Amino acid sequence: MNPPPSNDDFALLVAVLPPPLQTAVLRLPEAELLEVVMDLGRPPEARLVGRVARLSDEPVAQEALQAVLSRVGELGGDNRAGIERTLHRVSAIRNRQGRVVGLTLRVGRAIHGTIDMLRDLVDSGKNLLLLGRPGVGKTTKLREVARVLADALGKRVMVVDTSNEIGGDGDIPHPGIGGARRMQVSRPDRQHDVMIEAVENHMPEAIVVDEIGTSAEAAAARTIAERGVQLVATAHGNTLENLVLNPTLSDLVGGIQTVTLSDEEARRRRTQKTVTERRGTPTFDIVVEMVNREEVRVHRDTGAAVDRLLTGAEVGGERRTQQGDTVHVEAAPEVVVATPPGGHVPRGTPALGAPRPGPTRIAAHAVSRELLERVLRDLPVEAVVVGRPENAELVLTLRSRANSPRLRRAAERGGARVVAIKRNSSTEIRRALRTEFHILEGVDPNDVRDAVAEAEAAIQRVLTDGESVPLSPRPSRLRKVQHTLVVRNHLEAVSVGSEPLRHLVIYPMGAGMVEVPDLLQSQADEDPPDDDGDDEAEDTGDDSEAPREDEERPLS
Fold first, then answer.
1. What pLDDT is recorded for position 6?
2. Residue 347 gets which letter from DSSP?
């Protein structure tokens, strides 16, 4: 049966529970209750903010589940039902025969003031996407957005309510959405059709949609945005990066594509010839990552944020927190704007694919993860081993597997450098990592850091100004480290002078050979050695830091 309308929504939810559970739930703090879980043959539980409380020691019987189902609306195609004129949601778990064996009763609340952190974004008229994991409060904020748009801003608002979670169950919408109108969806797979129907039939100025989750719904969202209607929606995902890597929903933020650059463009960008770029204009102008109910991170320019993400730069984002009625805004850290295709590299721009803050993420592909972790424990580096190449900054693989199409795609998605080794041995892994992390036996680490920092700054100047840059005199082993960085950035370098004043001069690609032909013989100590030696020689444990050309070659 359907309970009569009432202002006491929480009491209506409690009323559908069996009497013993009603008493137990009423003892709990109402403001902290998130949901009640009833699974066949298990004790019922109440999930609160930060904890779980057992409601009874008696396991749930089939009769108790049927008693709850008889007091709520009919289950739809998405296995959800509601309580009329309330925002509560009842979700069912079925066995293979279709019988209900579990229920989740989610508490729905209309809380005014929940979008104080986002009010300026809603007022802007731009398309807004709320991103967050389940249970973080996306729907509650979305409901308040609908009310503010309709009542405070006086817009014609249409809510596309697939599971009646925004406007409540029944034919009359819950007061929580204010003056917004509501279109219910007969089946979950028709949400995209109703989204288009709302635009074509009802002349809205704003559309509110919960849980965009399919490619059809993403395409419908783009259609709505291109028709000049403000769109506010939610999607599952912790961060913007999750959305970019989700092939179904990446179009919401512009989509991604793999392009092949010319040799000149690859040198200018300091990256591989095959790179990942944003495909088009994002559907949503602003993306809000919901960290928790009191904290969000705002990306005011979705396109620029995605570009930075794809280039490996810091994504940035404005941090906002709410304490009571006070909203604290922490300005976004200054980030370097990503270089657009064909654009000029501005001074100070970090190399594309530059490592992100924190430990370096390393993935093992066709290489023993146990060996890799063992070697890392013995090296003075800050690094962690991750399971998937697309989540790594550095991928270690065998030379025979380096050109695997699957690995190429994964590395391109994450912008990882791929380093190939001959064999799956600790000696090979150690040699590769010592080269990557510039570890020189018997050399002061501070001297190495100084040499690397000087080379990186000089490389940036050469890429920006197109002019040669001399480096300070360094010992041979440090010059080799600097030369490795030069080659990796598609530039040229020659050694000039005599010891102890011998040093590198870095040139744009092609310039060094033309301007200093008489110096070619003098750079022999920086040239990477040939990798034609036999296997026995490689297993002697020699930890030479000289870069190996085949191990440095990126997938392109």
1. 40
2. T
